[in-house]
Amino acid sequence: MKKVLLGLFLVVSALSFSAERTLSYEETFLDKKTGIVYAIGEKTPYTGVVKNYKFLSGDRVLEGRIIFKNGLMEGTFKLLYPSGKTASIATYKNGKKEGEQKDFYENGVIRIEILYKNDKMNGIGKKYSTNGILRGEFPYKDDELNGVVKQYNEVTGKLEIEADYKNGKTEGSVRKYYPNGKLESEEKYKNGLREGLTKSYYENGVLKEERFYKNDKLQGISKSYYSNGKLQIEASFKEDKLDGISKEYDETGKIIDQTTFKDNKQID
């Protein structure tokens, strides 16, 4: 009996496989309002394979063998460059991306890798250079940046920028680094706008500039320093415009220029 059942299963499986419907891209159409794919001339959503389904990526057209179920993409698919090299691998469930997606350069090196959950990016996305060096890390939650975004030098792989994000907007600090790893600047952000004290440094670690922002506009006293740490310029701002007395000093601390501004215009 077991042999008979096994034989029937194999026959049914073979018939199902042979009956799998396959169409070319030109034999299908996409309803842009619903996102459902149909065979041309049919009203029932398409179930089967499209052997050369086309996707536009930048200025290139990529092709792949895509499985559809009730008009929606289903399962793992692979997109190819015109050269035949793999461009992207992703998995769909009920027409939505689910799981890991990997995009590749034409030389075979991974370009981007990211996890999807219910068609939205979740987790740490990673971007690479053409020679495989990590260029960036992007923490996503439901398609929005949340956490510390990191950017690396494409040649050395060293950290260049760190930025704090919350709900898709810069929130917290943005830190830039010199090639030697020392801090170059640090800015504070609130709801995507600069807010509070910003500092920049010379490569030797000496303070270079101090600026204060309110709602992304310069406000209050800004200061610039010589590389030896001595004060060079002191300027007063209001709503991103020079307003008040600006002073310039030489390296001994002597005032060499003093100007008064009002609404970004010199008045003396």
Automatic annotation (TrEMBL):
Pfam families registered for this protein in UniProt: MORN_2
GO CC entries: chromosome
Entry keywords, A to Z: Signal
Listed name of the protein: Toxin-antitoxin system YwqK family antitoxin
Signal peptide: 1-19
Any single GO BP term: heterochromatin organization
Organism for this UniProt entry: Fusobacterium nucleatum
Lineage: Bacteria, Fusobacteriati, Fusobacteriota, Fusobacteriia, Fusobacteriales
GO MF annotations, alphabetized: chromatin binding
InterPro entries the record matches: MORN_2
Keyword Signal carried by entry: yes
Keyword Signal on entry: yes
